[in-house]
Task: inverse folding
């Protein structure tokens, strides 16, 4: 059975197929009522709906996971300033609530947390704050003259990154919110239809006896 299905979806589909098989046997002998024929058709439609929903959910979650992993650290050891001996250890959360990767430099035997977020949602907040800090430094003339031109050129590039990243994240958030709503609707329907099928199965068993 489809691995994308959740436990309750898988359980209902098994019940649907069991019921449909029993109903088909009765239909072949002409013993199945019109009501149960309609129920069999409804079962087939529901199974298709469940499988489609599972595929859509998998696609949305896979897309979300890929998006979550688009940030690539260019981490360097703060002691030797090299990256070739770094090993990622875990994830830390700073005072802003941003998550960043922690590393161990096997050359220096040093543990450190990289100074940038490891996901695009927190990276947006980081860039917004960083741009404000750069703009404030320019206004206060606190940037060395040799760095001023570089800083002035960097700000539009950072703003462009934000401009392109924000709508992608907003779309993903909207997809996840819609998926969450759909999941609640499907769970409710699954619960109700499962109970209904169990009752109808009892009726079929009684009818055959």
Result:
């Amino acid at each position: 059975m489809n691995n994308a299905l959740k436990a309750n979806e898988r359980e209902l589909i098994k019940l649907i197929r069991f019921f449909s098989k029993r109903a088909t046997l009765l239909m072949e002998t002409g013993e199945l009522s019109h009501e149960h024929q309609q129920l069999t058709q409804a079962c087939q439609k529901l199974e298709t709906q469940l499988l489609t929903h599972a595929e859509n959910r998998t696609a949305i979650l896979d897309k979300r996971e890929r998006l979550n992993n688009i940030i690539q650290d260019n981490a360097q050891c703060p002691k030797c300033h090299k990256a070739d001996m770094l090993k990622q250890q875990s994830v830390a959360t700073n005072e802003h609530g941003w998550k960043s990767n922690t590393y161990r430099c096997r050359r220096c035997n040093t543990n450190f947390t990289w100074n940038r977020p490891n996901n695009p949602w927190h990276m947006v907040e980081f860039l917004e704050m960083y741009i404000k800090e750069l703009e404030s430094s320019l206004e206060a003339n606190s940037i060395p003259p040799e760095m001023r031109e570089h800083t002035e050129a960097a700000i539009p590039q950072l703003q462009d990154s934000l401009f392109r990243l924000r709508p992608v994240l907003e779309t993903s958030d909207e997809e996840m919110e819609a998926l969450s709503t759909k999941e609640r609707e499907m769970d409710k329907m699954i619960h109700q239809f499962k109970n209904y099928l169990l009752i109808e199965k009892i009726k079929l068993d009684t009818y055959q006896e």
User: Anything to note?
Assistant: The longest strand covers residues 86-93. Residues 72-118 form one domain. The chain has a mean pLDDT of 90. Helices lie at 7-28, 34-68, 120-139, 145-208.
